[in-house]
Design goal:
Length: about 400
């Protein structure tokens, strides 16, 4: 991934080496270093916790966790970017969030312990390079890199989907954000050059190659969102209310995934308007995601673009998780040379848009969309030229 030049790529390597040295300076030993990426979601928004389909890709922004064992039962957690140094007694870990960034690390430790897995005293140094609150899943990147780091100390090996599940549980139960599995899963399983279509019920997935010559351009509105605040959890509760209603009409419904468009439309007037709007988004977004995976596979970018456009409108009007700045950023892309499709990405209420842009036009697109957005809002945005990257792992 790079900004307007290839600077970020070179910086990343320097950062990784720097993290090693920094750790040694602070803790006096050499660490092992683990990396987990953030993600963009091409389509399939707010479908994961409804047992539906998503199509994300891991991107080059990552969180790094350097770790080395301690002889005592302490967990000492520092960061290069985030404020505060934390020290916990492993045998008396807090049971609930302490209200700081270290909650994502603690949450993972706490779930590992609940699962009866051994935890060893450790020093950790975190370097978070995923923009925070931008909808690029900085939390999942921190959870997954922490999980890899903790497991390495005790030599425990877990299949990647299990790591993704334990990280989601950490965020659900410890941090209190009732997120689905998408972000943790893609952070673990991403593959360079590919998005992947994930069935969030069975966790079966299929890699979908991103057509050659296409760049992922991520535009940050600079409006921050916070998933742990109420709106995300409220959407989830509204979906659950929908499921309870549909299950009365059709007992085979266990999640919105099971609601067909026909059943949805039959009951358009039987549900409170807000609940119906939420259900309508999810049911149709699932269909759009499957359709988009087919279209991307066959290189039908015009169709992918249409589906992304419909997805954004649905998130804006039915699911009501967009905001003025996201809408303006989506509009700002329209008509720019090389633009194939765009929409808000992630939980919403701020954050980023994802745009599919022909590679040869990407630099110019980045410049022009930033100008248009600034004219419309007065806000100086950040635009990242990304490609799909590999999921989490250890650095050599
Ligand atoms: C956030 C959540 F973490 C995901 O699980 C998903 O629900 C997404 O919002 C919306 O699609 O990123």
């Amino acid at each position: 991934m790079h900004g307007y030049s290839d600077m970020t790529m070179r910086m990343k390597t320097i950062n990784e080496i720097h993290l090693d040295f920094h750790f040694e300076r602070v803790f006096g030993t050499r660490p092992r270093v683990f990396r987990a990426p953030g993600r963009v979601n091409l389509i399939g928004e707010h479908t994961d916790y409804n047992d539906g389909f998503v199509m994300p890709a891991a991107v080059g922004f990552s969180t790094y966790v350097a770790i080395a064992p301690r002889q005592d039962r302490k967990l000492v957690v520092h960061s290069e970017e985030f404020p505060g140094n934390f020290e916990f007694d492993l045998d008396h870990l807090p049971e609930k969030r302490v209200g700081a960034w270290c909650d994502y690390v603690l949450g993972v430790a706490s779930v590992l312990r609940q699962q009866g897995r051994e935890l060893a005293g450790a020093n950790l140094l975190v370097s978070g390079k995923v923009p925070i609150g931008a909808g690029l899943s900085s939390s999942a990147a921190l959870e997954v890199s922490s999980a890899f780091a903790f497991l390495s100390l005790t030599g425990n090996h877990l299949p990647l989907p299990e790591i993704a599940k334990l990280c989601r549980q950490a965020e659900n139960d410890f941090v209190g954000a009732k997120v689905g599995i998408m972000d943790q899963f893609v952070s673990c399983m991403g593959k360079a050059g590919h998005a992947f279509l994930l069935d969030c019920r069975s966790l079966e997935f299929k890699f979908v190659p991103i057509p050659a010559g296409l760049q992922l351009v991520v535009c940050n509105t600079m409006v921050k969102h916070d998933l742990a605040t109420g709106a995300y959890n409220t959407r989830r509760e509204e979906c659950e209310a929908g499921v309870r209603a549909f299950a009365k009409w059709d007992p085979s419904v266990h999640a919105l995934r099971d609601v067909s468009v026909v059943l949805l439309d039959e009951h358009a007037n039987d549900l409170p308007a807000t609940i119906w709007k939420r259900c309508s988004h999810v049911v149709r977004e699932n269909a759009r995601t499957l359709d988009a995976a087919r279209a991307l596979t066959t290189g039908d970018l015009a169709r992918v673009g249409e589906l992304m456009h419909e997805s954004h409108n649905s998130l804006r009007d039915l699911y009501e998780v967009s905001c003025r700045e996201l809408d303006l950023m989506v509009e700002a892309a329209e008509g720019l040379p090389g633009f194939c499709g765009g929409r808000m990405t992630g939980g919403g209420f701020g954050g980023c848009t994802i745009n599919l842009v022909r590679e040869e036009n990407a630099e110019e697109f980045a410049k022009r969309i930033a100008e248009r957005y600034r004219e419309a809002t007065g806000i100086r945005s950040q635009v990242y030229l990304c490609s799909a990257e590999d999921g989490a792992g250890e650095l050599n």
